[in-house]
Amino acid sequence: MNIKLLIFDMDGTLVDSADANYSAYATALEEVGVELTREFFDIHCFNGQHYTQFLPQLMPGESQEAIKKVHARKQEVYARNLDQLSVHPYLKSLIVQQKETLKIALSTGAARVAVDNILPIMGLENVFDLVLTGDDIQNKKPHPEIFLRTMEYFHTEPHETVIFEDSDIGLEAARLTKAWVFQVHQWANND
Q1: At the topology level of CATH, where does 5-16+85-183 sit?
Q2: Ranges of each domain in the chain
């Protein structure tokens, strides 16, 4: 096995952002009269789906403009909740250890603004050779576009690539590339 590229998902894989995301979505939705339970969030929202896939379920009959406004408000609230985030200590260590010998990429469905806010707080702003976000692609996971574009950028083959993912949708996208896939299970920062 001759690995040349490591690709990391962000939310739930490299960064534990579930609480911050839930709090931000709950606040934004409450402001428009919609209750978001933690159970619904965990099952439908924080499993790799894009907001355009799950917000319409919570806001049936609402326009795309109304859904975009709720998401924009979520982003504002989320930016104030970044102190709730923690980085996966072992994956961060792996990135630091392999930075000089392998290409390292962050390929996440998260918005560019969220990524740009999170990476410096987590001490990860200068470690990636490439950062692709949900804003950079047409097809969201489970489509493998984000991972395929990352491999294309580095001219690497699937057998030279390891993708780190946590969600079912992300794992499906990763497996479709035929790359090596490492499933990151739920973890807790026990500092």
Answers
A1: Rossmann fold (3.40.50)
A2: 5-16+85-183, 18-83
Q: What is the largest CA-CA distance in the chain?
A: 53
- Rg of the chain over Cα atoms, rounded to whole angstroms, equals 16
Kindly list the distances between the CA atom of residue 90 and the CA atoms of 63, 66, 86, 188, in Å, as whole numbers in the listed order: 42, 40, 12, 11
CA angle 144, 28, 33 (to 5 degrees): 120
CA distances from residue 160 to 4, 69, 100, 163, 184 in whole angstroms, order as listed: 5, 41, 16, 10, 19
pLDDT along the chain (191 residues), means of 10: 96 91 96 95 78 92 97 93 91 96 97 92 94 96 98 99 95 98 76 46
> CA–CA separation, 180 vs 12, rounded Å?
19
The answer to whether 124 and 87 have CB atoms below 8 angstroms apart is: yes
